[in-house]
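S1.2 Input.
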Amino acid sequence: MTAAWSRIARRIRVPLGFAFAAVFLWAARPTPLFLALSLLLVAPGLLLRGYAAGYVKKNAQLTTTGPYAYTRNPLYLGSMLIAFGFALGAHNVWIAIALAILFAVVYIPVIRSEEQYLRSAFPGFDEYAARVPRLVPRIVSANGKHTAPGEFSAALYRKHREYNAFIGAASMYAALILKLIFLRK
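S1.3 Output.
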């Protein structure tokens, strides 16, 4: 993918997410069972995003502690869990396929672009990247003598407004439950 597409992907990912949500709600065919099963992905995704937001100091330092000791992109991993959880809740395979394509086309270039920035801004990034996988998390923390200790910060969580993910998920569940109720009639 080109650098131009990476810039475009960074700009369109959030608006595209809102547009996809509208299509998602239209195509969703929720059932009580699949909505319940979706929580198995959505809840951990929300927790992971919230946990990661309490560690990251964007553009100020290379974050290597907390969930960043397991995966370099816990926020994106959390987003993927949430998205595919909702795809499960929608009970529509086409939504899952469309999500997989969107993540590949939009998020892979965004992640690579962000890594280029981190590599240029933080001299320790290459060493960190050699120890910590891009997306699929390690089983055991990569923390060791090479990383500084870190603690979750509620102030960072609030600063990054990560509570909006919970509000969005709750709104999506409300819409799916309403659709479930009205589809049954």
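S1.4 Remarks. Residues 3-184 form one domain.
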